[in-house]
Amino acid sequence: MSDTFDRAAPEVFTPSGLNRLVRDLLEDALPMGVWIEGELSNVARPASGHVYFTLKDANAQVRCAMFRMAAARLRFRPVDGMHVLMRAKVGLYEARGEFQLVAEHMEPAGEGALQREFEQLKARLGAEGLFDADHKRPLPPFPGRIGVITSPSGAAIRDVLSVLGRRLRLAEVDVLPVPVQGREAPPAIAAMLKRASASGRYDVLLVTRGGGSLEDLWAFNDEQVARAIYASDVPVVSAVGHEVDFTIADFVADLRAATPSAAAELLVPDGADLARQLGRLRQRMATLATRRLQSSAQRVDHLHARLNAQRPQARLARDAQRLEALRRRLHGAISQSNALRRARLDRLQARLAAQHPRLRLVPMEARIAQLRQRLGTSMARRLERDRQRVQEQGRTLHAVSPLATLERGYAIVFDQRDAVVRREGDVAIGERVRVMLAEGELRLTREG
């Protein structure tokens, strides 16, 4: 019974091990996290900078935590009762075994929905090419008539008219009234864009309104407005809200301005700058005209001088001067050539005189005498060295000669065959021998 229980025994967990396993299963099942929407409650912000809260709906709730780095990026202060949209990772707090969400991003739910709709429409229109730079048209440098599509009672039109009046009064401005907020605004703006483009009256159109929330500016994020801007036959400038506000109309328009006032400055040039530029052009034109007159006067004088120079008397005088100059050049060239040849002949004569045989014999005779003297001296030195070497070799030879030994009292005995006798047995009894002394020799007979 015990053996059977051991073989079939299941794996046994500790509480921390089980919690860790459940956490890993949750994180593996939802590795990218989830988007979740609900109401905040029990919001707590301790000194650590983390945010702890509960996210709930009518039927359930879940504990949540947002750590300090993510909480620092919040653009609002979370409070109880706020409806939010949150991106979070699903996990488990191991120490207590509590299921929780770790929030990475959080925003008010209503604004978040509009922002998602904005991003989806932006992506779709961008994919269709409505934002392509190739479709953007340049603004006319001096527009004669400008159509401003906006609310006639808003602050935006007052700013636009004020800037246009200050910069350039020559441009005519038509205010094309439309609602810029609410459900009726998008179709009214789109219809006005179509009528203004089809009328052919305007060189450029401005679509504008003042600042506001995302909901206030939503009419300019409408698809039919975007397509009406894209289809316009004249360039369209968009100036909606403040510098930080961006709408779909801004992306489709040929030019986006940060504010209505900035759009007015982009639409027309500055009259004061134009006046200064015209003054510079007028001064430049006067300078160019003066230079052109002076150049023309100089050219007339030059042509007059050329005409006088083409008279027969002048041409004959020039030819005579040219002939005289050529004669002088020829005479100078001949003189110079003769001088060069004379100098070369003198150099050759000097070289020939330097090579005369008589001049070469004198040093050769001196050289022969010198060599003869050196030869005699060398032969005398050589004979003296040979004589000394012979004497030295004679002394050396005499030192080892048998004659030197004889002079010390020794004698050399030869038998009848003139062989040197070295032992007594070499001479037989009665045989005659010859004894060589230092001076003379003896002839002896051996007796028994």
From TrEMBL:
Keywords: Cytoplasm, Exonuclease, Hydrolase, Nuclease. Residues 130-444 form the Exonuclease VII large subunit C-terminal domain. Its EC number is 3.1.11.6. Bidirectionally degrades single-stranded DNA into large acid-insoluble oligonucleotides, which are then degraded further into small acid-soluble oligonucleotides. This is Exodeoxyribonuclease 7 large subunit. One of its GO terms (biological process) is DNA catabolic process. The keyword Cell wall biogenesis/degradation does not apply. InterPro entries: Exonuc_VII_L, Exonuc_VII_lsu_C, OB-fold_nuc-bd_dom. Heterooligomer composed of large and small subunits. NCBIfam families: xseA. The gene is xseA. It comes from the Bacteria. Belongs to the XseA family. One of its GO terms (cellular component) is exodeoxyribonuclease VII complex. It catalyses: Exonucleolytic cleavage in either 5'- to 3'- or 3'- to 5'-direction to yield nucleoside 5'-phosphates. Residues 16-107 form the OB-fold nucleic acid binding domain. It is found in: Cytoplasm. PANTHER family: EXODEOXYRIBONUCLEASE 7 LARGE SUBUNIT.
